[in-house]
Write a structure and sequence with these properties.
By secondary structure, this protein is mainly β. The protein has three domains: 170 residues; 75 residues, no CATH class; 131 residues, Jelly Rolls. The chain is 5% helix and 39% strand.
């Protein structure tokens, strides 16, 4: 006998049965039932699960189910059957129907006369043959069995007629199970719910946590940064994710926004001049009607506002040119242009000047606009402004 199950023989449990079926408590499904499945693992740790693999022989109707360990959960009264296959099990599939294809099952099945009346006490690897049809479907698995594979048997196939095309006919359906508290490696199509909040699984190379109603990516569950593509809609305000463009984002309750507000910048290399002695946003002889910059106030409500220009005053050594910011929120002026916040320059040759100051008291998440304003200290003197820039940085 090459399939062993503990707590099955009416004559007592052998020492071999005890040795080869020590699997511990199962992945919970309810408070008293565990998850049926194959124990994961592979030589060298390369694969998710290699136990009970179905290896077909090319050009034939024959295959072999390899060694492995599994647990088959039955009713509450019957409990769970640990099973170990210690030697490969050969299988031979029936020839294909002359007209239609069919789908067979390969199962690991428990025979327990005390409950099924079948006269057998053993675990066995078996083929459950399907029905040939124009649109074949897999048969129903027997009670207290674990489906390992489906095998599609094409019409007319036999050992003398190409046999089974194993690469396309075989579909791996082996579920996995682990000891309670372990991380469950699952197939990509596994839709089974978790057994309890805090239950973890590995699926599609992503670690997920069961929150009581859904599987959520592990970083999302513990407040870390969710990897790009793992989260579409945030589960809580303050959740972070890495976007597909590499930008760290924060969920504000309705939308993903940059977690760190980036600097806002505007500039112009088109020079213009003014002779106005009051602040104006319009310069003459330039295609730029007004240099403006829109920004969103960060959570601190404070920003560093920077501005500058390359300035020249025509034919005067006593006149000053001023460039100042004006900040508005909608139609409301939050900061009017004034000399205190301006950059200023005086001289007959070009000079580059800039300034920076902290502005606070802004409403977080609200959009503001900065407009560059200019004036001359003399109505008869022309002041030129070139290489203009505005910049806003989030501040503490």
């Amino acid at each position: 006998m090459n399939a062993h199950s503990a707590w099955l023989s009416p004559d007592g449990q052998t020492r071999q049965d005890t040795r080869v079926t020590q699997v511990g408590a199962l992945t919970p499904v309810t408070d008293v039932k565990g998850r049926s499945g194959v124990l994961p693992g592979s030589e060298g740790g390369q694969y998710r699960v290699t136990g009970l693999w179905l290896a077909g022989t090319a050009g034939t109707m024959s295959a072999t189910v390899g060694v492995g360990r599994a647990v088959i959960q039955s009713s509450i009264a019957r409990g769970a059957y640990p099973v170990t296959v210690t030697e490969p099990v050969p299988l031979t599939f029936a020839d294909g129907d002359p007209q239609y294809g069919r789908i067979d099952l390969v199962v690991l099945r428990i025979h327990d006369h005390d409950h099924d009346g079948g006269g057998r006490y053993e675990a066995a690897v078996e083929i459950v043959q399907g029905t040939a049809a124009a649109q074949p479907v897999a048969p129903t698995a027997p009670d207290t069995s674990l489906v390992l594979f489906t095998v599609a048997v094409a019409a007319g196939r036999s050992a003398g007629n190409d046999g089974i095309d194993w690469d396309t006919a075989r579909v791996d359906l082996r579920p996995t199970t682990v000891a309670v508290g372990g991380i469950l490696p699952t197939r990509s199509d596994d839709t089974a719910p978790g057994g309890y909040p805090g239950h973890y699984r590995d699926i599609n190379d992503t670690l997920q946590r069961w929150n009581g109603t859904a599987w959520v990516p592990y970083p999302k569950g513990v407040g870390g940064i969710a990897p790009a593509g793992a989260v579409t809609t945030g589960s809580h305000t303050g959740q972070y994710r890495d976007s597909s463009t590499g930008v760290l984002q924060r969920w504000n309750g309705t939308a993903w926004l940059p977690a760190v507000t980036p600097p806002s910048f505007a500039s112009s290399l088109d020079a213009g001049y003014t002779t106005s002695t009051t602040y104006t946003s319009a310069l003459t002889d330039t295609a730029v009607s007004a240099l403006t910059l829109t920004f969103t106030a960060p959570t601190t409500g404070a920003v560093l506002l920077s501005l500058g220009a390359r300035i020249q005053i025509i034919n005067s050594t006593t006149t000053n040119a001023f460039m100042a910011p004006q900040v508005t929120q909608g139609s409301t002026v939050v900061l009017a242009a004034d000399d205190e916040h301006a950059v200023t320059f005086g001289g007959a040759v070009y000079g580059s000047v800039s300034t920076q100051f902290r502005m606070s008291g802004l409403t977080a998440g609200t959009s503001y606009t900065v407009t560059a304003m200019y004036r001359s200290s003399s109505a008869t003197v022309t002041c030129w402004f070139d290489t203009l820039f505005l910049r806003v940085d989030p501040a503490a």
